[in-house]
Batch of 2 targets.
Target 1
Amino acid sequence: MMGITRRKLLSSAALGGGATVLGGCDMLNDSPAFRDILTSAEDANFLVHRALGDRAELAPEYSEADLSPYFRGNGTQDPDTSDYIAAVENEFADWTVSITGMVLSPLQLSLADIRAMPQRTQITRHDCVEGWSAIGKWTGVPLKLILERAGLADGAKYVVFWCADHLGRSQSRYYESIDLIDAYHPQTILAHMLNDEALPVRNGAPLRLRVERQLGYKQAKYIQEIELVSSLNGIEGGKGGYWEDKTDYAWYAGI
Ligand SMILES: Nc1nc2c(c(=O)[nH]1)N[C@H]1C(S)=C(S)[C@@H](COP(=O)(O)O)O[C@H]1N2
Ligand SMILES: [Mo]
């Protein structure tokens, strides 16, 4: 019976009920019957459950005084496709982000649509695996609200972000992906502002992901399409992201 209960909690976590998991976890911890089960083969399941609870935690947020004077750009800093160059010249007036794949209603949102939705602002630290960090103030719409507007189809498990830039000798499109736990995390936003100004081109204009519990390469810039999928197999190299496909970078890059 406990197993069934935990499976229920797990599936509610996958749908974004992170708080439910934390609450349920504490309740289970306090129950002597449950503590006994910890010595059984159920341990592994509990550890997964615990990990999900931890993933609902917020990344640290900072104050204006902590802001880096300059938020450097990294990776692509000026996409050189003719479409992107034209979009910059047009001040992104016609930029849209499409929500596609396993959704009930596919959407195409303009920047005006994005700005009209409820916004969240957060000051967080970005950590790049190459060994630098920067603190920035990001404003954007919680990804959760966009997903709720589109409605998830049964079986949707991952959110894939398709970017406007092509990188390296292979000229592959940059892309990244996260699971629904991170997608529904309150600090996961589609940001269009950095430090109270429109996102600079070097930092991903006009729209970039902030998924604050993970490393820099997960923070997809220049987002054009957000695709809901049931599996990452068969997408590009199958490892869930540009760097994951090309190197040994982990798909879940928790910090
Ligand atoms: N589209 C796209 N997104 C990207 C990258 C990129 O090259 N292209 N580089 C990633 C890496 S490695 C880092 S550290 C951050 C850098 O964000 P910044 O340019 O705002 O500093 O963006 C990430 N997102
Ligand atoms: Mo990075």
Note: The CA atoms of residues 104 and 209 lie 22 Å apart.
Target 2
Amino acid sequence: MRLFFCFLLLLGCGAAAAQKINVLTSGTNTSIRGLSVVNDSVLWASGSRGMVAVSVNGGQSFAWKKVKGYEQRDFRDVEAFSASTAIIMAIAEPAVILKTTDGGNSWQKVFEVNTKGMFLDAMDFNGNFGVVIGDPLTNKPYLAATEDSGNHWHPVESEMKIDTGEAFFASSGTNIKLKIDTVERRYEYYAVSGGKFSNLLTNNNKYLLPLQQGEQSKGANSIALNPENNDMIVVGGDFTDDQDTTGNCVLISNGLSVHFSMPHTSPHGYRSCVTFLDKNTALACGTSGVDISTDGGKNWRLISTNSYHVCAKAKKGNSVFLAGKEGRISRLEVQD
Ligand SMILES: *[C@@H]1O[C@H](CO)[C@@H](O)[C@H](O)[C@H]1NC(C)=O
Ligand SMILES: *[C@@H]1O[C@H](CO)[C@@H](O)[C@H](O)[C@H]1NC(C)=O
């Protein structure tokens, strides 16, 4: 494997930067699915067994917190605003969102829904504006929004109906993205579903995705928005067959109309998270490994066979981190 890799480097990849993944911490008994990187020094991660990790030195060290009163809860998503302020989302029964303003030492409940069947999947923020998406209680996605960084939430009526057996994955907190049109002063969301059907859902449209679907374990897990244009990448696949490379990624151009295309070289298996690093570069990870694309998602190169659930780039800065099972948090290093 290693020889083969060097051979490729000599042949033509030599000019391109090489990527390496450095493990920063591992061995804490939590499965991390929430990751939010404020800047090159501050990052937060959240996971199962009530665990939250925060680093204020770019991942050199982490402070692990077990959220009091929520020791058995699974925090599938986190949104961090600074070294002191963040919110975390616990999925179900009851679905709650907690907020800290003291670096994770104490948490206040800012959202709670006790309805049976309620299951939150992901949050996304754009400045102080945020949305949370949950599985359908009727025939519509559950949506709530905040305008004050998560202090108050109000339900939003979805215009899009979804089918029986169609729902959302809570695998990396990245199946919904929020765009703010500052001129029109309105917000648009892009969410992706899976299960019986896998769709791209927007405020007032729905598009069937050309991805694996039809069963509970299949469909879209994550959507990334290109930072410089309207392109998007969606990843997913079948989490019960995580080496399968069919129907696990679709490229979306969103110009006058929405257009789908498939990659030439797909990511190397089921992927639970995708994120853009710049206009052309994107990173995708899942239980069977990590891939990078330097051509907007057309071709993906496997850079690790280690399992990661979530990856994220600093909101302000260039650092890129990945996280997953057994409390593993790593950093993507680029060597020229
Ligand atoms: C880790 O957590 C799981 C799930 O709660 C538990 O079953 C297991 O015993 C824990 N392992 C250790 C080493 O604490
Ligand atoms: C990151 O944000 C924190 C505020 O939470 C700030 O104190 C720190 O200086 C910032 N670091 C960098 C590298 O921007």
Note: Residues 2-11 form the longest helix (10 residues).
